[in-house]
Amino acid sequence: MLKILEPYILTFIPIFVAVDAIGNIPLFISLVEGMNKHQRHRVIAESVTTATVVAIIFMFIGKWVLRLVGITIADFQIAGGVLLFVISVRLLLPGASKALLTNGHDKDVGVFPLGTPLITGPAVLTTTLMMLDSFGIVSTFVSLVINMLIVWVTLVKANAIMKLMGAGGTRAFSKIMYILLAAIGVMMIRRGLMEFLIK
User: Fold this and answer.
1) What is the helix (H) or strand (E) element at residue 105, kind and residue range?
2) pTM for the predicted model, two decimal places
3) H helices, E strands: number in the chain
């Protein structure tokens, strides 16, 4: 039984870390501030649908697209890492996070920035391709869908989760997550450079 579940567990964990469902909660609350319950649920539905569709499409055609334009996995890791690092650094600037990401299009926050790049961004796309190579399509697909269901639950219960942490805890958690996001970006750049140099 454990042997059957092993590929699912081994694909679920890296995708869970890359998706960072808990880490997106503070930004979600910031972006939906002032919205009523119906509007919030619409944003949640849009963000999870967008994130899932983008991830699944990329899982099936990602390698083909990269080969078509001559991009290697190493190139993708470096570019994705740089993007994550830049976003996280700008999010760490006081008062810049919401203005940076909404860019005046509050009605579309479910698609951008929540759906992509915050839920399904370079880290998720890169991780998904790696898991696909290592464990196959079935376990990767199942793990991806389960992670998206977790994202949906955490966003629906976002206020309750944040109440447990308090305002100060929320701000501190946000900053820590942005720093971790920057670290993930650096890690992706490092891995991309190492793979490039080895070749």
Assistant:
1) none
2) 0.74
3) 8, 0
